[in-house]
């Protein structure tokens, strides 16, 4: 089916996620945290949504953008790298954009980078003229090279890109990097970042305007309520009024302190911190007069 054909009417939302691989488990966990649950079919390619009319399709990540473009799925959880690659490839083939990233999800972080043999003295992208670059991301790489007016040969490989320089099939590579361990093991060093990637929720450029539209809006709201609080911590403590100003200073990155209803003892205060609170920071607050410090994880919120 082509993207121009109208998708068949459906009243259930369909989300494609990776069947196996790095994004499979975090994607399922995130959707569970949004209140979705499924009855699993035996072949586990299709999971029927039980708590809401939202079904899962378990596929290879490479297939997710195409499933959205063809209207087979409404949403997908996929790396920005894969989505941008297939988006760029569509534009290069003269096709209209069909899918877009709706939300960053805060997991699956990696970078698409150029990496050269360790012995190269890297001086900048102009050095790439006339080289052969192995990659599984030919469309993003082509756009990047074109934007810099660099003439280099893109060697498309579907896997094991990092051994291409040693095999002599390319001079350098353009590949995903997270820790850099794979590069080091292959005597390569990263030199340029083409894309900062993470898992995203992807959807069609034109959102469904039937029952699925309302489901999609509800799911996005729940997702924001989970993703946006992921690293936040609720901090509670007691403090004598004379110490509050100093504590507020130490908590400049947090929301303003809220005073809770009085009981016996020093006033109780709470605030929301944007990131994790180290032991060192808690001890610093304690020295400034915070008593009975308690750090609570935030599971979800409704904005
Ligand atoms: P599939 O069988 O679904 O095609 P795959 O081998 O293409 O799986 P994975 O290796 O599971 O995919 O990677 C999925 C996504 O995880 C990548 O597209 C990327 O967004 C993200 N990712 C995070 N860190 C890395 C990394 N170090 N290497 C590769 N991908 C990473
Ligand atoms: Zn893949």
TrEMBL record:
<keyword id="KW-0479">Metal-binding</keyword>
<protein>
    <recommendedName>
        <fullName>ATP phosphoribosyltransferase</fullName>
        <ecNumber>2.4.2.17</ecNumber>
    </recommendedName>
</protein>
<dbReference type="GO" id="GO:0000105">
    <property type="term" value="P:L-histidine biosynthetic process"/>
</dbReference>
<keyword id="KW-0547">Nucleotide-binding</keyword>
<keyword id="KW-0328">Glycosyltransferase</keyword>
<feature type="domain" description="ATP phosphoribosyltransferase catalytic">
    <location>
        <begin position="60"/>
        <end position="223"/>
    </location>
</feature>
<keyword id="KW-0460">Magnesium</keyword>
<dbReference type="InterPro" id="IPR013820">
    <property type="entry name" value="ATP_PRibTrfase_cat"/>
</dbReference>
<dbReference type="InterPro" id="IPR020621">
    <property type="entry name" value="ATP-PRT_HisG_long"/>
</dbReference>
<keyword id="KW-0067">ATP-binding</keyword>
<dbReference type="GO" id="GO:0005524">
    <property type="term" value="F:ATP binding"/>
</dbReference>
<dbReference type="GO" id="GO:0003879">
    <property type="term" value="F:ATP phosphoribosyltransferase activity"/>
</dbReference>
<dbReference type="InterPro" id="IPR015867">
    <property type="entry name" value="N-reg_PII/ATP_PRibTrfase_C"/>
</dbReference>
<dbReference type="GO" id="GO:0005737">
    <property type="term" value="C:cytoplasm"/>
</dbReference>
<dbReference type="Pfam" id="PF01634">
    <property type="entry name" value="HisG"/>
</dbReference>
<keyword id="KW-0963">Cytoplasm</keyword>
<comment type="similarity">
    <text>Belongs to the ATP phosphoribosyltransferase family. Long subfamily.</text>
</comment>
<dbReference type="InterPro" id="IPR013115">
    <property type="entry name" value="HisG_C"/>
</dbReference>
<comment type="function">
    <text>Catalyzes the condensation of ATP and 5-phosphoribose 1-diphosphate to form N'-(5'-phosphoribosyl)-ATP (PR-ATP). Has a crucial role in the pathway because the rate of histidine biosynthesis seems to be controlled primarily by regulation of HisG enzymatic activity.</text>
</comment>
<keyword id="KW-0808">Transferase</keyword>
<comment type="pathway">
    <text>Amino-acid biosynthesis; L-histidine biosynthesis; L-histidine from 5-phospho-alpha-D-ribose 1-diphosphate: step 1/9.</text>
</comment>
<dbReference type="GO" id="GO:0000287">
    <property type="term" value="F:magnesium ion binding"/>
</dbReference>
<keyword id="KW-0368">Histidine biosynthesis</keyword>
<keyword id="KW-0028">Amino-acid biosynthesis</keyword>
<dbReference type="InterPro" id="IPR018198">
    <property type="entry name" value="ATP_PRibTrfase_CS"/>
</dbReference>
<dbReference type="InterPro" id="IPR001348">
    <property type="entry name" value="ATP_PRibTrfase_HisG"/>
</dbReference>
